[in-house]
């Protein structure tokens, strides 16, 4: 089993907001929607992950969690769904563990403090097992509840972003509930759109994308107003629509600036150097103000 390192240093007598008031990991009704974008096979959509009931393992009550992907295939221009992951977790005093078939392994630890860390749950093939390190902690109000959060250094092995934020109940902001599927396996699960349970609901999806929305190729390319075309695209794009646009800002799935450049209406913009994936764009007019924003997919 993975262990925390170094040992946790908690302040005696500290009472966290909401502590002890309810089950803080996988409570009744828990469900997650994550964005799904596996562009090397041409799939774009979302994953729906739900708490599927309790089970007992070695005398300990644990939660069964099942995930299903719902996607649109750009190549076949069709929709399909498939079960992509199931797991069993349990929580004890802020320590969330996942069952690996023979024992429980550390998944998250919400009582960790800066400097603490834990290895990603295995089995993982690299010689040195990747680990997450806590950089900062705090509390934030989401969905009417005060939740703990941890800012994590995801390590150089990350294929998404070097840091991520882990929220109580919600899990990772940009990675999947099981971080190995996003940060090691590169399964295409990029960010948390929505979370809800019987007591709260949090919507994090940007650009008007709803929790269970799947944009097909026609919908991504048929936006009103100024927008990037073609969408999806592979290299050169241009600005569609009739509004004057003078600047393009393009952000990757972690919110980092991928492109920031002056543009001219109708002129080709070379984005061939970007890695496949889903990007958020912002188009600005002559006065520097945003005139449009949206999502663009590179495949």
What would your notes on this structure say?
With 299 residues, this protein is mainly β. It is 3% helix and 48% strand. It contains two helices and 20 strands. It has an eight-stranded antiparallel β-sheet. Strands 7-8-9-10-11 form a five-stranded antiparallel β-sheet, with no helix packed on it. β3 (60-73) and β4 form a beta hairpin. The longest helix is centred in the middle third of the chain and has 5 residues, at 179-183. It is elongated and about 65 Å long.
In short:
By secondary structure, the chain is mostly beta strands. It contains two helices and 20 strands.
Name the features.
299 residues, mainly beta, 5-stranded antiparallel β-sheet, 2 helices, 3% helix, elongated, disordered N terminus
Write the layout of secondary structure elements.
Elements: E1 31-38, E2 43-57, E3 60-73, E4 78-92, E5 95-99, E6 104-109, E7 117-119, E8 131-142, E9 145-153, E10 163-167, E11 171-172, H1 179-183, E12 189-196, E13 201-203, H2 217-221, E14 227-229, E15 236-240, E16 247-251, E17 257-262, E18 269-270, E19 277-284, E20 290-298
